[in-house]
Structures are given as structure tokens and as C-alpha cells.
Amino acid sequence: MSCHKVLKEHGYRLTPQRLMVVDAVHSMDRHISAEEIFDRVRKSYPYANISTVYRTLELLKELGLVVETDFGEGRLRYHHAEKGHHHHLVCRVCGEVAELPESALDGLQEKLVHERGFEAEFKHLAISGVCSKCRGKVRKVRPGHPYRRSH
Amino acid sequence: MSCHKVLKEHGYRLTPQRLMVVDAVHSMDRHISAEEIFDRVRKSYPYANISTVYRTLELLKELGLVVETDFGEGRLRYHHAEKGHHHHLVCRVCGEVAELPESALDGLQEKLVHERGFEAEFKHLAISGVCSKCRGKVRKVRPGHPYRRSH
DNA sequence: GATAATATTGCAACTGGTTGCAATAGCGAC
DNA sequence: GTCGCTATTGCAACCAGTTGCAATATTATC
């Protein structure tokens, strides 16, 4: 179902700003940050405000239209929900990000329900650790993290 | 082992500011925030700076002396490592926070190693969901979240 | 106890993100 | 097409946390 339709059906107004944010998220293949979305929006409408971008992302997230993921780089990233729900395995050595199907946490989820009566809601987790290629390779040069903070 | 000793053994200086931060974390039974630590430190030394608190917490965390947990309230909280490593089950309805032993994630960890060769490092996770008491109780009044953001 | 090397601090400016409020604009009703 | 209601925006100020840099203070050595 289209994002426009979902927004409309929930009684939200289809403002140009919102549509531009939706467009930016959909046009990006990889996970996009709020700042990147803002840059794209500003190309069409230079008077746009970053807080509108944040508010729109919050809304789209609540409606289940976009998915928010924290890769541990100090900012959040988004992708459109049509790509499906999944978690991520983030290697802290080489920075590789692998997808992990949602079902991988089914076991843990059932365990928590049975043992504790707790209904866990795992939302697009980014699990940090060391990938298969990097395990055992000590002190290897890091080729660069896709989303690493620069400083 | 005492925090003073560990700091010293690693070649770090035992400055009054550091000792006050260590003291604040140790004197608090529940999970304490950086701001709360800062308030305590300022009582002994009014010229203290919040960035020193953050830098000290970062250091203590790296040395494994304190544990950092994100309860999803917009700020991080700390407790001293002697309390042991564990995860948390945070109920998004009533706000109750229950402890979950580290071993609860052993199954998932092994699964990731076997299936993906990925060595996950789960660090004091706060798992959001609905607790046993709140499951089924729809639209119950929330008695208050221990660490909920006020706004 | 004084000296020197340098780790640490305080400061100010910055980051990503949030929020209260007045002004604006989308949309349904006419 | 105009009107009015109110959702939404832009703004500015704020929040938690980080960082570069000059000044300061801890510690080892004498």
C-alpha cells in the first residue's frame, strides 16, 4: 500500500514536506539518515526545516511505513518498510553489516514468554559483534565502516 | 577489586573529579544518569564540569568498572559493575524493569555463531515489551515509569 | 619538597534530536 | 471558489552528549 494512501486514511495531511520526506526514504536504497533526507528535501524546497523531517520520520515510523535502525554511530537511519523487517549484524572490526531475518529471534522471544511471561518487541535490532571473516584475525587493518562517525 | 586500584594499575591519574564520579556511581543503588552524577559531584565541588563526568564514565565503562544501559528514555544510565552483568526487560505499559540474567541470551549467541559465524557481543540490553501483569490488560492506567522522560 | 612531562580538566562550540508556540496552510463543508 | 477549523510548519530554544584546545594539576623522578 502506498504511503500517501496510509497517511490519508489515518487523517494526516499530505503536505509537500511530508511527501518529500517519503520520497527521499523511498528513493534511497541503503539506510538513509535524517540529515541526508533533509539535504534531499532542501534541493526541492530550500526553506524546509530539519525539525519537520524529524517529526515526519516519527510519524512514518508510528504508521509502520518506515523502519528506524540504530547502527551505533550516533545517529539513526531509516529505510522504507516494504524492504521487510529484519535485524542487523554489525561487525565492529570491519564494519560489515549483514541482515538477520526477524525469525532469528523467535526462539528468544518464546523463551521470554514461557519463562517470564514477557512479550518482547524486538524492533530492527543492530547486534554488535565480530563477523566470521574477522574472528581470529587479530589487529587487522579496518577497511572502513559504511556508517562510521568521522572525527 | 577497587576502582581506584584498577585506574591506577592502568596508568590513569586519580583526580578528585574521577574519584567523585566513581563515588557517585557506587553510592547509588539504582541506575544513575550522568546528570544525577553531575549533581552529586557538584555538591562537593561546585566548579566541576559535565564533560568531565561524561569522559570519566566513558573511561570507567572501557575499564569494565561501570555498566551503561539504555532504557530508551533519551539518556543513558550507569551502575557499578560489581552488581554483575545482566539485561533488562522493560515493560512499555507499566514501566516495570525486571532483570534478565546474561545467560538468557546464550542460546541466541550460540545460534548466531553456528549459523552465521558471528560472535555477538550483547552488552546490557534493555529489551522493550509487555510484562506478564500487563499482557491482556488493555488501556490500563500507567502507574508511572521509573525512568520515563517527562514532557 | 621542587621539577618536568603529560594526562586531565574546563571551556566553548558543536552534534543529533526534541519541543513549545505563534504563524501558516491543507482540507472538508458550503 | 471561499471559509473556517485545526493540523502542520518554521523558528528558536532546549536536551544529552562529544570534541578541540589551551590551561591546569597529577605523578614520577630527582
- Computed CA radius of gyration of chain A, to the nearest angstrom: 18 Å
Q: What is the strand arrangement across the widest sheet of chain A? A: 1-3-2
Oligomeric state of the chains? homodimer
Strand proportion of chain A, as a percent range, falls in 15-25%
Supply database-style keywords:
homodimer, 151 residues, alpha+beta, 3-stranded antiparallel beta sheet, 3-stranded mixed beta sheet, 5 helices, 36% helix, globular, DNA-binding
Notes on the structure:
Chain A is an alpha+beta fold. The first copy, chain A, has a three-stranded antiparallel sheet. The relative contact order of chain A is 0.14. In chain A, a hairpin with a 5-residue loop joins β2 and β3. The N and C termini of chain A lie far apart (41 Å). In chain A, 36% of the residues lie in helices and 20% in strands. In chain A, α2 packs across α3, α2 packs across α4 and α3 packs across α4. The first copy, chain A, is built from five helices and seven strands, in the order ααβααββββαββ. The interface between A and B is medium-sized, with 26 and 26 residues. Chain A binds a DNA duplex (30 and 30 nucleotides) through α4.
Short description:
The structure is a homodimer of 151-residue chains. The first copy, chain A, is an alpha+beta fold and 151 residues long.
Topology:
The structure is a homodimer of 151-residue chains.
Chain A: H1 3-9, H2 16-27, E1 32-33, H3 34-44, H4 50-62, E2 66-70, E3 76-80, E4 86-91, E5 97-101, H5 106-116, E6 119-120, E7 126-130
Parallel strand pairs in A: 4-7
Antiparallel strand pairs in A: 1-3, 2-3, 4-5
The structure holds a DNA duplex (30 and 30 nucleotides).
